[in-house]
Give the backbone structure.
Amino acid sequence: MTQMRHIGLSLGADLCWPAFYEDIVKELGPTFRHGDEEVGVRVERVSIEPFALRAPVKYDVLLDRLTHWYHTSREWIKKAIIMNGTYVLNNPFTLQSMEKHTSYVAMMRLGMPVPETWMLPPKSYAEAADLEVTLATYAQMFDLDAVGERVGYPAFMKPYDGGAWVGVSRVDGPEELHEAYEGSGTRLMHLQKAVDPFDLFVRALAVGPQVNVIRYDPGAALHDRYKVDFNFVDAEEHRLLEDMVLTINTFFGWDFNSCESLRRDGVFHPIDFANPCPDSQVTSLHFHIPWLVKAKIRWSMFCAVTKRPMQLNPSWDEFFAIADDQDMGYSDKMAAYGQIARGRLDAVAFAEFCDEYLADLDQVAYEYFATDRARDIVRRKVAVLFPAAEVDQFTDHFWGLIQFWRKTEADRLGLAT
Ligand SMILES: Nc1ncnc2c1ncn2[C@@H]1O[C@H](COP(=O)(O)OP(=O)(O)O)[C@@H](O)[C@H]1O
Ligand SMILES: [Mg+2]
């Protein structure tokens, strides 16, 4: 009898990658043998509805895009993990408690060159019962200029739990520092030394043990920030960037995350790496979207078919033991963290699984991304984001980049075109 595994897509406004994902999974075929079992995978979109806390949940794996802001889904997912053993990308427990600030502290503790960062008490507060007495008794008047000097200019003021560039400002001197602080209102802010100048900005996108290091231009227009570029880091740097994001992810128990790093004088400084819901739209990822879709398919299928248990309790001692080793240099430490990370992610078993069960995936995706159906999905996404007069132009633009991906893929796979 076929054992069914259910993968749920817990979605918000995402339109393109889920459709690509569903189409390609369908194309891969309904069932395959895993050990003694015949296993079938069914993909469904999760609906939002009232639920009993003891009710069964049929999903083996959830790809979630709502947890960080939509509470009904977050709480249903938390219940599914605890009560029903569901595996979720990403673990909502760690996302809520391990925001940007925590991730800075943790990676500093592991010795990564996160720029100097200070936290500032908020400029103003919403009223709360004991607030006045607490502040009057304990909050020290502080000299913002002195903090600015300690951090150094240029610097970035940004929310301690931020995302999507909201509330981020660059400050080049004391005047701008005061302006940014005045404007921060009730938000709890960091002041972080800028990596400036830098000669390379990368985003390392990771899904399970799979990492794609992409050059990124934060100053470009939104549709042009992820670059199509090759060989912009050497093999050693590439390995370091892989180790970095996999370390961060396994430290917190994240499966899907992107790590922003800036290179200065040959050193990669991570500056933003608590991104539980990384940008996954064709309108920003274009050339790179097939990689993401395939990576999600591989990892979610692996987790579902092998019934991978979730890493629920963070286990930090192993990382700290390496961090505390006085005889080890930075690059050896990073390699050692990377080894722990790959072990936790079962990278070897995963690679074997992909070879054995998903050998067709590259070819299927290569063909799929030439179809009218795929093009239509790109167009629909473009139509949501761009003015009507630009829909044709930008559909051609993104589709053209995907076709360029197909060309590089044909070369890589040795396919006849
Ligand atoms: N320390 C820094 N050095 C250089 N640039 C920075 C630094 N911090 C932030 N930035 C710039 O500001 C952008 C937004 O900041 P980031 O920390 O990524 O916040 P968010 O979580 O909102 O994306 C970054 O992509 C980068 O361009
Ligand atoms: Mg960022």
